[in-house]
Amino acid sequence: MKFLIFLGSTRDSTPPKPARLGLRVAKALEQHFGEVLPDHEVEIIDPLEWTFDPVFKPHFAYPQSKVPKQLDELANKIKTADGYVMVSPEYNHSMSPALAHMLNHFGSSLFAYKPSLIVTYSAGQWGGARAAVTMRGFLSELGCLPVSAMIQIPEAADVLTETGQFQTGENADRWQSYFHRGSAQLLWWAEATHRHREQSDPHRAIGDFKQDPKQRNAPN
Predict the structure, then answer these.
(1) Which residues of the chain have pLDDT under 50?
(2) Quick one: which of 63, 82, 156, 196 is 20 to 30 A from 23 by CA?
(3) pTM of the predicted model, to two decimals?
(4) In terms of Cα–Cα distance, which of 89, 75, 123, 119 is closest to 9?
(5) Domains in the chain: how many in total?
(6) What separation in angstroms does the CA of 14 have from each of 17, 18, 88?
(7) Which CATH number fits the domain that encloses residue 76?
(8) pLDDT of 4-58, one tens digit each?
(9) What is the maximum alpha-carbon separation in the chain?
């Protein structure tokens, strides 16, 4: 199976240092998944490596022959993935605008009927917990329902090195165990939904809202 780790940070400047705590978190998750899920594919989606038009236009709004190549490539990655890890700092008690901007380019039918894992972090003591709460509704609307376990990393610069390794100390094993609870739930649900999608296509059985927002409406 395939899992995508979406990094919700476009910070790329110094000072202050470290420039991108989120990249440490994403690398730590990539290494963790590589250890606990060695038979599965894991890829970091870094928004600095993807080009989006300055004027917002979602993937599904383009004529098929004019979809930007990178946008189409990322849409295909999302469609073929079996689960998602959403990594976000906290902005004004909410999720990263960089992450929301990236995800909003794609329709919910690409994410739907798959699980997601919420991972937040901060330079301070709260670990982005308030952002995590708001992300539940956002991801549920996309259809990639978040698992109950969430990962919050306070004071991330003291927890992780620049390469995504846990800082040496007595808490390293506890962090591994903490990560494992989230990754194990994600894998369990990913395997279950993967098998069920093979048996029954939910998009055909339930239908997608692709033509008109009124399709969501209750009967008059």
Answers:
(1) none
(2) 82
(3) 0.91
(4) 89
(5) 1
(6) 6, 7, 20
(7) 3.40.50.360
(8) 999 999 988 766 666 689 999 999 999 999 998 888 999 999 999 998 888 899 9
(9) 62
